[in-house]
Specification:
Elements (H helix, E strand, L loop, with lengths): L1 H73 L8 H9 L4 H6 L3 H46 L2 H12 L6 E3 L5 H9 L3 E7 L4 E7 L7 H14 L5 E6 L7 E5 L2 E8 L7 H15 L3 E5 L5 H5 L4 E2 L4 H9 L2
Parallel strand pairs: 6-7, 7-8
Antiparallel strand pairs: 1-3, 2-3, 4-5, 5-6
Helix pairs in contact: 2-4, 5-6
């Protein structure tokens, strides 16, 4: 009997124990759920607050930038801007909401619009003036062409002949002439030859009329060498001579230099050659040189002083000048 009661009591205690354990876990589980919910709600609330903060910050930046734009526009010196710049600035503040928000804009916008109209009229006037000048130039050019067309062929040739200045110019580069000028020069006794130019460093075609008793080669070399000298900014007072002096003389830094052009004819006149060399030595010392028309003449003239063939004129000229 006692044993039976003890067993019943043990079972009841065991049931109570199981119920207490179950209740404990239920309470614990509900507590974790509440914590999780609180965490989720807190995170969501923080996110909402952060998004609101970002929007407010963006709005504030936009307002600051807007105010800066308005202030810049209000401070504009319209007289210092051109039409395009004013129009560009005006387009940024024409919003009706901005005018309502910043009443001071209204007067500045009106001023800018009026100035735009004024500038537009000025530009139109300038365009008309430019067109007038262009038309005037075109009329002038047409009048020149009309006058040129009225000239007879003889008058045209006389005009070209005068422009060529045949008394002064004995050599012409063919590439710088037109067909009529070439025809005139040939009629006036000029010859067409191909010669190596010391200035251009290549063979060129020229029309040439020899000076006095000089040969074609001598006349050309004097002309070609002078062209080379004219390329140097330091060289001044270039002169051609038909007297006992050198064919070409010039100055550099106040010192006189000379270039004698030889084709070999003076080699047959020994006394005259000696006098020429003596004169050059006394007047120019070591500031002169000979340019020969043919390569084989270099050895024959070299014993008298600095001598060069056409190909090396530039190099020897700079050597003589010390540059």
């Amino acid at each position: 009997m006692l044993k039976s009661s003890y067993e019943v009591l043990s079972r009841e205690l065991s049931i109570v124990k199981q119920q207490l354990i179950s209740l404990f876990y239920t309470i614990i589980n509900n507590y974790l759920v509440h914590i999780a919910l609180i965490f989720l709600l807190g995170s969501f609330g923080s996110y909402i607050l952060y998004m609101v903060y970002l929007k407010l910050r963006k709005k504030r930046s936009e307002l600051i930038e807007e105010r800066k734009c308005i202030n810049n526009f209000l401070r504009l010196e319209l007289s210092e801007l051109d039409y395009t710049e004013i129009k560009s600035n005006l387009s940024g503040v024409r919003d009706k909401n901005l005018v309502k928000k910043y009443p001071e804009l209204d007067s500045k916008i009106k001023e800018a619009k009026n100035y735009l109209v004024e500038l537009k009229h000025k530009n139109e006037l300038m365009n008309l003036t430019d067109k007038k000048k262009t038309i005037g130039r075109e009329i002038y050019q047409l009048s020149l062409k009309e006058e040129e067309m009225r000239r007879t062929k003889e008058q045209q040739r006389a005009y070209l002949k005068n422009r060529l200045d045949l008394e002064e110019n004995k050599v012409f580069d063919k590439t710088e002439l037109n067909d009529v000028e070439i025809e005139i020069l040939l009629e006036e006794g000029y010859k067409q030859v191909n010669e190596y130019c010391v200035a251009k460093k290549k063979v060129i075609t020229v029309l040439i009329r020899p000076i006095l008793n000089h040969s074609v080669a001598h006349t050309f070399l004097v002309w070609s060498t002078r062209r080379l000298l004219e390329e140097y900014a330091m060289i001044e007072d270039i002169l051609e001579h038909e007297t006992r002096d050198a064919d070409l003389t010039f100055e550099v830094d106040g010192k006189e230099f000379a270039i004698e052009v030889e084709t070999g004819t003076l080699l047959r006149k020994k006394k005259q050659l000696e006098e020429k060399i003596k004169y050059l030595d006394e007047k120019y010392e070591d500031r002169w040189m000979v340019v020969v028309s043919k390569r084989e003449l270099v050895k024959k003239y070299n014993k008298f002083g600095l001598c060069t063939q056409r190909k090396w004129v530039c190099k020897n000229l700079e050597k003589m000048l010390g540059i």
